[in-house]
Amino acid sequence: MSIPKLVIFDCDGILVDTENLANRRLAEWFVAAGYPTTFEYCRKYFSGRSMASVQKEIEETTTVRLGADFVDRWNAGLPDLFAHGVEAIPYVRDFIEAVRAAGIPYCVATSARISKMHITLGQTGLLPLFEHGMFSSTMVSRGKPSPDLFLHAAKTMGFVPADCIVIEDSVAGTQAGIAAGMRVYSYHGDPYSDRDGLASAGGVLFDDMRELAGLVPIH
Q1: What is the pTM of this model?
Q2: In this structure, what are the phi and psi dihedrals at residue 207, rounded to the nearest 5 degrees?
Q3: CA-to-CA distance for 54 and 49, rounded, in angstroms?
Q4: What is the DSSP track for the chain?
Q5: In the beta sheet, which residues pair with residue 88?
Q6: DSSP letter string, 161-205
Q7: What sign for the dihedral angle of Cα 146, 149, 153, 155?
Q8: How many angstroms separate the CA atoms of 219 and 212, rounded?
Q9: Per residue in 102-123, pLDDT tens?
């Protein structure tokens, strides 16, 4: 296995621990709108996806209407939601630093908006490590599980897909990376992770960030 020329990190669930906070609120909003769901369901099926794609799915498959301003209202509430309690995923900074020390380019590509990344990465002290390369699904026409975002990140950074690896934690993100023709390492260290779904999507599974340095050839 050759050394990757570009490492692409997902953000939520890989760099920062926001999925539980976000999906608890999401479940509350959906129930209030008349869509019967639970935190566990949202955590399993909506993690790693853009709110626009989630709204589209719900409104196409049910009679529930979340409102034309749903995505804007959601994003407006994120600074408050993530003002406290956001932490870096354990040991991920060590791997980022190892990638940097090896001289391998890296970036972050996520369903989240750039403004959200500034909040979450900023609070955890990781923002300075990624300001050089931040990519959001708002930059492409189709979000995960489509490969568009990862392909856009690779092209912008100057690399072909086969030379890139993706670090993901969601099924949609893993599917996106595989569809982009990249090797995907899928983290299932969270108790709500869909381990079987990640495996079926084609990811190389790991449950501790300390394992990554042994799985990914960076030297």
Answers
A1: 0.91
A2: -125, 10
A3: 7
A4: -PPPSEEEE-SBTTTEE-HHHHHHHHHHHHHHTT----HHHHHHHTTTS-HHHHHHHHHHHSS----TTHHHHHHHHHHHHTSSS-EEPTTHHHHHHHHHHTT--EEEEESS-HHHHHHHHHHHT-HHHHTTSEEEGGGSSS-TTSSHHHHHHHHHHT--GGGEEEEE-SHHHHHHHHHTT-EEEEE--STT--HHHHHHHT-EEES-GGGHHHHS---
A5: 16
A6: GGGEEEEE-SHHHHHHHHHTT-EEEEE--STT--HHHHHHHT-EE
A7: positive
A8: 13
A9: 999 999 999 999 999 999 999 9
- Using an 8 Å Cβ cutoff, are 207 and 188 in contact? yes
Q: Which two tokens stand for residue 199?
A: 């495996």
Compute mean pLDDT per 10 residues along the chain, 219 residues long, and list them. 94 94 95 96 89 95 96 94 92 98 98 94 97 97 96 98 97 97 96 92 97 92
Place of tokens 């708002």: 138
Residue 51 neighbours by CB under 8 Å, 6+ apart: 70, 71, 74, 75
